[in-house]
Amino acid sequence: MGEGIARPEDERFMAAAIRLSRWHTGQTSTNPSVGCVIVRDGEIVGRAVTALGGRPHAEPQALAEAGELARGATAYVTLEPCSHHGKTPPCAEALIAYGVGRVVISVTDPDVRVSGRGISTLRDAGIEVTTGVLEEEARQPLAGYLTRQTKNRPYVTLKLAVSADGMIGREGVGQVAITGPEARAQVQALRAETDAILVGIGTAIADDPLLTVRTPGLEAQSPVRIVLDPALALPLTSKLVETAKEVPVIVVASEEVSPLGSEEGAAPSVLPDISPTMGEIGKALAPNSQDNPSLPATADVGRGATPQPISPPVGEMSGRTEGGAAPTDRTDMDTRHAALEAAGVEILYCNPYHPEVLLPALATRGISSLLVEGGAKTAKLFLEAGLVDRIQLYQAPVVIGDGGIESPLQPTDIPSGFAHRGTYIFGADRLDEYEREN
């Protein structure tokens, strides 16, 4: 049976399936959060979303709810039903077994084990299949899964809150409230549906953020916290370290300070300077250069751009073992490494200055979506690497004034290749959302 023709009611019921799919966004592990509704004679007789943790899938749950009413009914699914035997039976076979007469699919699954096979399986069984209904709308809640499948990295959202005078904070003050409570509540909701949140070490030390979800009832949905910390300077007394056993923390350290990083296993007496000079930045290789085989090529990285390194914070802070200052020798480094791991922090030795290397490493840990939330340098790093998929730019009427930290992005200089997706008002604040056009 060939491609089924879309019917007038298809968009209405697919919209219901898409709304369902958003219920568990960011809570289904490496599986996508899929919505499914079963419709018979114009009425929904079964509905479900992928269960927390990723199993069971949406289709068998919706079919079970519909029971005998599924025979001859239409199933609306936001993502192509799986056709392979994994830890659960194939969803395509479940749809066939229940006698569904028609299946309407929004997005084709890019997973090589599924892509097109689920559709073929259904059609071979005599079921009419219609695809592409509300595809653009359905892709947004599936963005993390689709990006990890097609680009081997998480979907990256950059969130910035900018004052009326173009600042994102004030030097030496720590956290500065730029947006109001309504906008901050919206950011908490974004954190709750994101796998991981990332800041630079400068922000981690200056602000001492917790980076968890604080909305009552959603605390358990806090993302993995990631800090770009080349020299393991994160203080042991920081909120991040103190809560690492409750909510995971990954510190991304330079490979040059790894216990395995020294030649032939010999530990150097003095650690190398790991903050690149401007000269080193200027002569750095493009991410996909054939002269730099140590960097894996990714599908969309860089467009020839060279990521700007983030310099570690300048200035000495007290208490080397407790953090805040870069260790100066191997013994000090090993002590810091052991103390952080004992506190529950995972240390990932992967060049923090090259997100095209870091992001695939995070994908292998099951991270499908990443929120970049802290630091002008960190934001600039991901923007210049061409690895931001979505920009959420909040603008507030607050004026920072003298000593302000300039935003790396203004409403007037959104990078080319991004489409404006909408403007939203939260109290006195304005949110403009942009998404990279494929």
UniProtKB/TrEMBL annotation:
**Which Pfam family is one of those matched by this entry?**
RibD_C
Annotated membrane-spanning segments are none
Q: Which PROSITE patterns match?
A: CYT_DCMP_DEAMINASES_1 (PS00903), CYT_DCMP_DEAMINASES_2 (PS51747)
Provide a Gene Ontology MF annotation, just one: 5-amino-6-(5-phosphoribosylamino)uracil reductase activity
Q: Domain of life of the organism in this record? A: Bacteria
Q: What is its EC number?
A: 1.1.1.193, 3.5.4.26
Q: Which UniProt keywords apply?
A: Hydrolase, Metal-binding, Multifunctional enzyme, NADP, Oxidoreductase, Riboflavin biosynthesis, Zinc
Please tell me whether the keyword Acetylation is annotated for this protein: no
Provide the CMP/dCMP-type deaminase domain boundaries: 8-130
* Region feature (Disordered): 283-332
Which NCBIfam families does the entry link to?
Answer: eubact_ribD
User: What this chain does, per the record?
Assistant: Converts 2,5-diamino-6-(ribosylamino)-4(3h)-pyrimidinone 5'-phosphate into 5-amino-6-(ribosylamino)-2,4(1h,3h)-pyrimidinedione 5'-phosphate.
> What family classification does the UniProt entry report for this protein?
In the N-terminal section; belongs to the cytidine and deoxycytidylate deaminase family. In the C-terminal section; belongs to the HTP reductase family.
Q: What is this protein called?
A: Riboflavin biosynthesis protein RibD
Taxonomic source organism: Rhizobium mesosinicum
Q: Which gene encodes it?
A: ribD
